[in-house]
Amino acid sequence: FLFNENIVSNITLFKNFEDNLIYDILNKVNLDKKLIENRNENLNELNLSISGGEKQKIIIARALLRNSNFLVFDEAMSNIDKNSISIIEKMILSDENLGFINISHNYSEENVKMYDYILEFTGEEINIIKNR
Q: Widest CA span of the chain, in angstroms?
């Protein structure tokens, strides 16, 4: 969900964070450069179309800004392009202090080796596709 505010307010949820931290996180989720440049402008006042994938990136940036120990994504990247999915997965999976469950129909093939487990749900069966 996005508020009728600027991108900064949407990821900080109206709390104070350093702008350089916000800028870094928006870059890490591969948000469109025009949106990053206009991060302090009200979303409705921007003459930019924000795709479903860009909205998902903003929401992921919100989660990452919280510096949580554990993230659960349920189709959180379903509208994001494959290149950005790869970038976001790699960033999250490379953090050894961050637990991550990614429920998805899409994942980056190149990042599969970084997951501890991949489970496939088919009908009534659960198959372990990969574990370390």
A: 49
Q: What is the pTM of this model?
A: 0.89
Within 8 A by CB and 6+ apart from 121, the residues are none
Separation of alpha carbons 28 and 22, rounded Å: 10
Q: For the chain, which domains are there?
A: 7-131 (3.40.50.300)
- Which secondary-structure segment (H or E) carries 13? none
CB 36 within 8 A of CB 27: yes
7 exposure class (CB count in 10 Å sphere: 0-12, 13-18, 19+): buried
pLDDT tens profile 56-76? 999 999 999 998 999 999 999
Query: Residue 36 in 3-state DSSP?
Result: helix
